[in-house]
């Protein structure tokens, strides 16, 4: 259901909820960001090393702060998080959070990482994740991406637009792929890496430059602001793009996601004028 389909009382209630959700998400993101900056480039941070990834104690600390903020204000809402998985609720809404996106960057002292928080209404007011886990991210309430090192706060609300530190943002107006800088990721499995390598054979000759920045949520926010023309990612999770999708679409961009294996997604996103180049479609 869209806001235009609501009667005035329902619309007012929805707008009030959206305001409270956004306020909570911003506060939680800033608190998690403060934790990240406290630990950034600190050799004492606990780490569990994985192939092509790391897991940090900082992730868990940030997640606890975010979930605590959500539960304090919306105890009936469900939460889907990278670290804790699914926390059920009965309020008809699900928060999808990545407490520290760009963990490898963070661990290596590279200052490109972020907090990603999104809230979606569950179809049929069912608080379990059957629809959302299946990729049905079509009833957004609000999305927030915060980059604590640069103090960049991106927010998006359906029908209200997207903003960077309070200023409206829009995707790039570029229609020529040769003017675009795009960002890519190879995923974490050999098959995903092979798919991206094949995709780059066609993509690289068409664009100005390709970058591999390592924090999908932040990169989607940068696409929304027009800093990047588009994004092509392999092997990411819902929490990597749930908030960025809201911000990007409200900024006039597109995002297409395909589940390549259970829980793993290929995401292509960008400015409308670059759709054909980024997706590889000529229809």
Task: Characterise this structure.
Helices cover 35% and strands 29% of the residues. The protein is of the alpha+beta class and 283 residues long. The chain folds into two domains: 166 residues, Fructose-1,6-Bisphosphatase, subunit A, domain 1 (Fructose-1,6-Bisphosphatase, Chain A, domain 1); 103 residues, 3-Layer(aba) Sandwich (D-Maltodextrin-Binding Protein, domain 2). An eight-stranded mixed beta sheet has the order 4-3-5-6-7-8-9-10, with helices on both faces. A hairpin with a 3-residue loop joins β3 and β4. α1 runs antiparallel to α2 and α6 runs parallel beside α7.
Short description:
By secondary structure, the chain is an alpha+beta fold. 35% of the residues lie in helices and 29% in strands. The protein is built from eight helices and 15 strands.
Features:
283 residues, alpha+beta, Fructose-1,6-Bisphosphatase, Chain A, domain 1, D-Maltodextrin-Binding Protein, domain 2, 2 domains, eight-stranded mixed β-sheet, 8 helices, disordered N terminus
> Strand fraction band?
25-35%
Overall structural domain count: 2
* CATH class categorisation of the largest domain: Alpha Beta
Class by helix and strand content?
alpha+beta
**N-to-C order of helices and strands:** HEEHEEEHEHEEEEEHEHEHEEH
| Percentage of residues assigned to helices | 25-40%
Report the radius of gyration as a whole number of Å: 18 Å
Q: Which fold does the CATH topology of the largest domain refer to?
A: Fructose-1,6-Bisphosphatase, Chain A, domain 1
Q: Total helix count?
A: 8
Average pLDDT score? 84
Distance between the termini: 30 Å
């Amino acid at each position: 259901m869209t806001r235009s389909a609501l009667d005035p009382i329902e619309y007012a209630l929805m707008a009030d909820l959206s305001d409270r959700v956004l306020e909570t998400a911003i506060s939680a993101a800033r608190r998690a960001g403060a934790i990240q900056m406290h630990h950034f480039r600190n050799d004492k941070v606990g780490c569990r090393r994985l192939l092509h990834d790391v897991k940090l104690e900082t992730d868990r600390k940030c997640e606890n702060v975010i979930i605590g903020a959500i539960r304090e204000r919306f105890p009936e809402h469900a939460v889907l998080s990278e670290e804790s998985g699914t926390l059920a609720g009965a309020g008809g809404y699900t928060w999808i959070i990545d407490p520290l996106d760009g963990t490898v960057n963070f661990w290596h002292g590279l200052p490109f990482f972020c907090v990603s928080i999104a809230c979606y209404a569950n179809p049929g007011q069912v608080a379990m994740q059957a629809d959302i886990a299946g990729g049905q991210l079509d009833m957004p309430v609000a999305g927030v991406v915060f980059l604590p090192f640069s103090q960049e706060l991106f927010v998006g609300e359906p029908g209200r637009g997207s903003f960077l530190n309070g200023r409206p943002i829009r995707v790039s107006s570029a229609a020529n792929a040769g003017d675009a800088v795009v960002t890519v990721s190879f995923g974490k499995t050999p098959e995903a890496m092979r798919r991206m390598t094949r995709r780059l054979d066609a993509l690289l000759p068409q664009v100005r430059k390709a970058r591999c920045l390592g924090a999908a949520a932040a990169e989607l926010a940068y696409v929304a602001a027009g800093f990047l023309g588009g994004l092509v990612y392999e092997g990411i999770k819902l929490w990597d793009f749930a908030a960025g999708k809201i911000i990007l679409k409200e900024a006039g961009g597109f995002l297409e996601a395909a589940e390549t294996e259970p829980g793993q997604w290929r995401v292509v996103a960008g400015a409308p004028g670059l759709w054909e180049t980024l997706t590889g479609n000529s229809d």
